[in-house]
ROK family transcriptional regulator
Amino acid sequence: MAVRKRSSRDIRSESRLDVLHALLAQGGATRNQLARGTGLSLATVATVVSELLAEGLVAETGSSTSGVGRPTTTLAIRGERGILAGVDVAETYVSTHVFDAALTELACTDVPLDERVESADHVVEGLVRSLDEALEAAGRARSELLGVGVALPGLVQGRAGTMSVVVPAWHWRGVGVLDLLRRRLDVPIVVENPLKAIATAELWLGEGRRVASMVTVNLGTGVGVGIVLDGTVLRGATNSAGEWGHSLLVHEGRACRCGRRGCVEAYVGAPGIQQTLREIAPDHPLTGTQLQRDFIGALGAALAAPDPDPAVVRTLERTATYLGAAIADLVAIINPERVMLTGWTAWALGDRLLPGTHAEVRAQAPRGTTADLTVGISTVRGNSAAIGMATLALERFLGDAGLLTTRSPLAL
Amino acid sequence: MAVRKRSSRDIRSESRLDVLHALLAQGGATRNQLARGTGLSLATVATVVSELLAEGLVAETGSSTSGVGRPTTTLAIRGERGILAGVDVAETYVSTHVFDAALTELACTDVPLDERVESADHVVEGLVRSLDEALEAAGRARSELLGVGVALPGLVQGRAGTMSVVVPAWHWRGVGVLDLLRRRLDVPIVVENPLKAIATAELWLGEGRRVASMVTVNLGTGVGVGIVLDGTVLRGATNSAGEWGHSLLVHEGRACRCGRRGCVEAYVGAPGIQQTLREIAPDHPLTGTQLQRDFIGALGAALAAPDPDPAVVRTLERTATYLGAAIADLVAIINPERVMLTGWTAWALGDRLLPGTHAEVRAQAPRGTTADLTVGISTVRGNSAAIGMATLALERFLGDAGLLTTRSPLAL
């Protein structure tokens, strides 16, 4: 791949993204407010707004008078333009969220999956069922879908036409899941890795467009990061950037399910945290908890007790040390302004992990990189992989309408 | 720092960089050849060329006839437009290289520094002496300098006006080296970290503009990387991106001179390689070699012998394993197309290290990230930090002339 040349088309596309993000963040806004909020000229805002009005994605919702001068029109994203589905296929469930075009969630459904082994047929079956249930719960029809975004728990590599999906947990290697999906759903589909989806959610709805560099750290069964540089998610040569979960924390350390030893994931993924507890207290009852979310939830409950379980306290302390050391490596290499923790372990334990993690990052990262660094918990709540996939589906819809140039290589 | 907005000015700046790089790569070229080589339209090339002709940086050097049609003019960078100095201040020496405006080296000088402790005054003194000696060797005067670029062996942080320099080896913390430099040299100066300089050299003269993502890995006393994404060197929030040398290879491992334990540098920096030899053969005579370059040179000589020293062979094998595991982490996080080794350890031992390193990268990096990954030795020879600093000085000169918009925050 050669260096990507930018064009004036890319600049117009960026302006449209800026306006959309401002409308999402502020709810409604006038053209003047949009110009102030985005730093774009009023003329550019007026052009962009007229394009978005023509596409039906933005509507004039009323007028506001500021006391002097003539009233100005308020604009908002037109939720009724259509609906979007974001599907988070994880190793243990398929979660489908239906949104209107303004990214307001209308309904969601979860279908459990067996976390040990799944055939592509079975997963696609679960996905279609979950989607139809979510649409029914929202009282909407497939025909109203502007697009469906599907996050798959593995590497989604290559470009349209030559894309392959590798899901180590299910022993998938480039299986024809994309063909299966296309055959079952007659709507535009995008597929992505959840790490890229989560970073995209943070770009559209969180901190991503306020800073020049940000890393989203996803903590669940697997762990990984999304790297956001100047408003763009870093994809890498084969769309695999962000596999921090399989970077090294301990040379020749714990066996990781990827086959390597000492990966970050083997220490701060949910099974890794359980292993830490096992090392601290081999006979602790929680070492036997089967389901990972139950285990993480139980840790949270044990910590919230009036007399917190000391083995759990030590497990959290050690996890914060591992997490901080691993994040310090990211800070050394990427030097971001923000690190945002996300994912269900972050929701359940983030407040408990944050102080120790932050202290370890400060102790371990190169001098001068942490003074202005914020480490926080993402403000995008709900299923951020599903939200991110819905925004990617919206990006694709806008791309097909000629309004966005996108680097996403993953539309089917 | 908010997301950087691109403008049509940036696009024109990129076009000028494309044309300059093509002229540097091809020596001379016609406008048609430049259009083919850069992918720019002939009209854009014509505009850019006329701007560079007006600035005196490009000249019409002759005409070529292709058999049919009228003869076309050949263009080349006009070396005599002025001179540039690139200064590599390392922990053990100051090396100054003088170039003409076409980046052809005219002369160079080395001044040794005591690698243990240096005052800023003393370093600036050595730098000025080295620069004057290099100018004299080239038969040129300070007044001809378009700019001087200085690589400092530490973190160069912040923006113009608030910039600070941290050199742990010399216990420098934001010392007024910049003021000292400005006072002694009445020419435009840029300062940078050598990692950014080396990546810039690879961008202008090596592989950097042929691929969308590249990592340059510098191996010397210290080690670190330059990350090049879409033709731009990643700087990070405080210009500290690329401090891979102080990312973790072995949790709780060898003490690193940065104060942390287990850093990559403690294993693949020259003193780290010596420590590996010490662990393999505590009484080996080379464990006592004082100067690091002598040590690395001696390893190369021992390997080239008809009957290579088995302890040295094992040291190289283990170093390749460490290096490959550490590069695999970069590949997991950044997923680049190219990894280019550079620096004096790479020149001396690279051919010996490469097969083992590449095998370890393939074994350790996430599936699918290494099939198309090239790991090689940089083709930019000579002192790439000095070359990079001269190109940064040229960038600054072109920026002052209104021809380039640059992200470099480091001009004084």
Summary: Chain A touches chain B through 67 residues (CB under 8 Å). Residues 8 and 91 of chain A are 42 Å apart (CA to CA).
